[in-house]
Amino acid sequence: MNKPVTLIISVFTMVFSLANAQKNTTSSDKCYIYLTFDDGPLNGSENINTIILQEKIKISVFMVGEHVIKDKQMDTYAKYYDENPYIDEYNHSFSHANNHYESFYSNVDKSVNDIVYNQSLLKLLYKIVRLPGRNMWRLGEKSKNDGASGIQTADQLAKLGYKVVGWDIEWQHRPSDGTPIQSVDEMYNSVKNLCSSDKTFTKNNVVMLIHDEMFQKTWEESELKQLIDLLRPDSHYIFEQMKFYPQ
Ligand SMILES: [Zn+2]
Taking every annotated instance into account, which residue ranges of this chain make up the domain NodB homology (predicted)? Predict the structure, then answer.
């Protein structure tokens, strides 16, 4: 082969492999963040709806049917969620186990029926469920349990075609006054570290459990806004809804 042709080929190969390397770095470089809110609708859901419309950030809410049918106000909040294009609604059971988890999960059929009933009552579009009081996962071949109680319920739901999802990190609050336990910087650093670690259920995907207390303060003063403002300018982080969670 003559020299100029060899040169052209090697330059071409170099450019091609560079372009490929670039592509690979970009795709594995992204980190998907799922902001998830449990137990709604509750007082404060109206604020969540307004803020999300204004901020245009995709979030996921895990709904409790018993709260929806409690009164007209809550039904209205649920309708706001239905109409909000940035909010996706998923299943968090009808009764929330009446907060007696051990006894709820000891009767597998009863707990499964409670969740299946919630699915039809709320006409939920996706078979995605978070078990009340449990951080359990069933996604394809992958699964995770946080204890023994609830395992059979999760398995049964998976058989019925449900994706059972938990969370990777929880932003905790003091029950007394709702102030967050982890500071904004702590949360920011945790998310950053989780994004590049093997500690999440799926690599490069961070599911965050957030509580409604975040919406007690005005939005401008809230810690959640501060965290979002830190993450959003960095194109490395992408806010996504649970229906897009990989499996
Ligand atoms: Zn809950």
Answer: 29-122
State in Å: Cα 169 to ligand 1 middle.
15
For residue 92, the CA-to-ligand 1 centroid distance in Å is 7
Q: What is the pLDDT of residues 25-35, one digit of tens each?
A: 445 689 999 99
Please report the DSSP string for 175-216 in residue order. TTT--BSS-HHHHHHHHHHHHTSS-SSBTTEEEEEE-GGGGT
What are the b/e assignments for 221-232, b being 16+ CB within 10 Å?
ebbbbbbbebbe
In the chain, domain spans? 28-244
Using a pLDDT cut of 70, give the percent of the chain over it. Answer: 89
Compute the distance from residue 6 Cα to the ligand 1 centre, in Å.
65
Q: How far is the CA of 5 from the centre of ligand 1 (A)?
A: 66
| pTM: predicted TM-score of the whole model, two decimal places | 0.87
Read off the pLDDT of residues 96-110 as tens digits, 9 standing for 90 and up.
Answer: 999 999 999 999 999
Q: How far apart are CA 148 and CA 151, in angstroms?
A: 6
- Cα 124 to ligand 1 centroid, rounded to whole Å: 17
Q: First CA to last CA across the chain, in angstroms?
A: 48
Angle, helices 45-55/72-83, rounded to nearest 10 degrees: 20
Q: Do 62 and 92 meet the contact criterion of CB atoms below 8 Å apart?
A: yes
> Average pLDDT of 7-26?
49
**Residues contacting 246, CB < 8 A, separation 6+:** 202, 205
